[in-house]
Specification:
This protein has about 350 residues and is mainly alpha-helical. The chain has one domain. Helix content is about 75%, strand content about 0%. It has 14 helices and no strands. The termini are far apart.
């Protein structure tokens, strides 16, 4: 499968990232905080169905923007893996260090060296060790999908990559039938390999169809469409009917944005601001939960209105994101020799 180049940034997807990020934060700061930390009467509780929609959007975009890297002849498997790890791991490790340090300094939780190390390597789930922050499960999914795409790069030829996608889809369906009707898979296996990776692959296939709808052969587009449909329908073996309907609605919404959202154009300063916020959404996602919970609890314990506390918690995370942006900018300037 060959493709035209995908733009590095698009206002449509920047806005989708920001929307998904806000939904996740508001769900954590209202519904999950009230359920797991302290019961609080927020003015509005965000349902779990909305956060599933947001996470699915994130994963679809992960796959969508992987197309150019996967099909680039200039980018070897080794270079792709290095580039991807350098994009993901430093930010993750920074968030892990900050969160662990704050939890220990505030005497909220003791983070052992073993737990920290296993979290840093993203293998803690395989040893029954909990994440330092619950949102780190997202990093495990990104890591597995990165390994999957590295394998796709190693296969080099488009036909071999297509065969890999077909093999995964077949395994997804077969293991789903076994999981639902014969014997459930261990949670860590089903979680890491099947329950979320399929949405990343769907995003990749959607990108292929969109970017090649005028140049690819009909049979190639039909094959990609068939895989998308099979991966979507196969989800019924891994989740409840209500979750499946949410995923279906999310996919339809994403398709509308991809194929008919070209009118969402932002110019000048607005575009730069939205792009910057969208780029920081990864850092915000990884840092917001445990630290935000600490801020919320500290404020509410001191009599601050719970709804106002949510605003201050979001403001706190926004300040951290801005500091991270300044750090990234400084490091970029040092690498380029302009500082």
């Amino acid at each position: 499968m060959k493709n035209r180049e995908t733009p590095a940034h698009d206002a449509r997807f920047d806005l989708l990232r920001i929307l998904a990020m806000l939904i996740v934060i508001l769900f954590h700061y209202t519904t999950q905080f009230s359920a797991s930390v302290m019961q609080t009467n927020f003015a509005l509780f965000f349902p779990s169905e909305l956060v599933r929609f947001a996470i699915s959007l994130f994963l679809l975009m992960v796959g969508y923007f992987s197309l150019r890297s996967v099909t680039s002849a200039e980018l070897s498997a080794g270079k792709y893996l290095k580039k991807r790890l350098l994009r993901l791991m430093p930010t993750f490790w920074l968030c892990l260090i900050i969160t662990s340090a704050v939890l220990m300094l505030t005497k909220t939780e003791l983070i052992t060296v073993k737990r920290f190390a296993l979290n840093a390597l993203l293998i803690n789930r395989f040893f029954g060790v909990p994440f330092v922050d619950g949102v780190y499960w997202y990093m495990l999914i990104l890591g597995v999908f990165t390994a999957f795409l590295t394998l796709a790069k190693l296969l080099r030829r488009p036909a071999r990559r297509t065969a890999l996608y077909i093999a995964y889809t077949a395994a997804f369906l077969l293991c789903g039938v076994i999981h639902r009707f014969i014997r459930p898979f261990p949670t860590v296996i089903s979680f890491a390999l099947f329950e979320y990776i399929n949405r990343c692959l769907i995003g990749l296939l959607i990108a292929y169809v969109y970017k090649n709808q005028k140049t690819a052969a009909v049979r190639q587009l039909a094959a990609a469409g068939t895989l998308i449909l099979a991966l979507l329908l196969g989800e019924i073996f891994w989740c409840t009917l209500s979750d499946f309907l949410i995923d279906l609605g999310t996919l339809l919404f994403f398709l509308l944005v991809v194929f008919f959202g070209g009118f969402l154009r932002l110019d000048g300063k607005r575009s730069a601001l939205v792009q910057t916020v969208a780029l920081e959404s990864f850092f915000i996602y990884l840092i917001h939960q445990r630290l935000g919970f600490l801020v919320l609890k500290w404020l509410i314990d001191r009599g601050v209105n719970c709804n106002l506390s949510v605003f201050f918690a979001i403001l706190f995370v926004a300040v951290l994101a801005y500091l991270h942006y300044l750090l990234r900018s400084l490091l970029a300037k040092r690498r380029s020799g302009t500082v």
